[in-house]
Amino acid sequence: MTADWFATGCFVGRVWRDAVDGPSLVTVREGAVIDITSREVPTVRDLLELDDPVAYAHSTQGSAIADAAALLATGRTDGVRLLAPIDLQAVKACGVTFVRSMLERVIEERAAGDPAAASAIRESLSAIIGGNLSGVVPGSAQAREVKALLIKEKLWSQYLEVGIGPDAEVFTKAQVLSAVGHGAEIGIHPASHWNNPEPEIVLVVDAEGRTRGATLGNDVNLRDVEGRSALLLGKAKDNNASCAVGPLIRLFDEAYGIEDVRQAELVLEVEGTDGFTLEGRSSMREISRDPLDLVAQAIGPNHQYPDGLALFLGTMFAPVQDRGEKGQGFTHRIGDVVAISSEGLGLLRNTVRPSDECAPWRFGVSHLMRNLARRGLLTA
């Protein structure tokens, strides 16, 4: 990842400005962060609903408020702090969209959330299934045949259903405005003792279902909580500071679009205060459902989002490297620094803390509306 990865492409995002005691819409031009908030476009939501958001980001004069390299290095400079680059969008996520993560969800389920039991189950399941599911198109005739075979072998699972069945898993990851940005602490529920980061690409979609851009996300996963019961998905996924998005949205234009997302490679690095390091890669080429198919399953005639949505596309990354005792696999420790990067989208870095020790979420939709009104940025 080059230091000036933001030099090409059209990037937009959000920052908190002490000078205005509130959030501002920004873009990056010639190495500077430019505040382009206006009465016509006070939010990211309003920008993405424009016919040509790229033209607005390029042409609106605005004012320089920070050096881009300095801000994107740590997430903050004097009086300016990066926020998640989404605001009024619903935050949705797709699960088990990669074969590797699908099999790990099956293992979690069979282990009932016990990491000590996972190693033996992983070995026996891999011996039976192996990589034979990697070429199966979800919802196809072949997928139905595989399902019948697995049922016969008593290996069927609800995770295999959404992995190779016709319907994708689409769930609510976080509440509107609750996501944290680059440089912030990311929260792990203190009740969890088996968990991991999930590096993902996040598509940003407008109210009409048009995919307007992409960014990076960390869909933190509590493996023991979800493994006990899939009905605990809400507790496993939606906790204080448990969703990180950023650093910026790259708007789709002639230089970057959905095909670049389909070919993207994500790199994950975890550095612990105990000296532990973990590296992993996730290739979007291995996703089992096309990104635009996932968008179509999330928004359409049966489900509208008048303020658009941010959609996590899932990950193939499910770490099994032992961090402590053999067979215990990976889990986070307090102070882990998680870095997710991808060429063209930048770097999202966060530090792990218990969710009840992260800064509490206190700035919701009502606070945003009052803040914008006080600054004269709301129009009828």
From TrEMBL:
SUPFAM superfamilies: FAH. Residues 170-353 form the Fumarylacetoacetase-like C-terminal domain. It comes from the Bacteria. Belongs to the FAH family. InterPro entries: FAH, Fumarylacetoacetase-like_C, Fumarylacetoacetase_C_sf. The keyword Manganese does not apply. GO terms for molecular function: hydrolase activity. This is Fumarylacetoacetate hydrolase family protein. Keywords: Hydrolase, Metal-binding. The keyword Hydrolase applies.
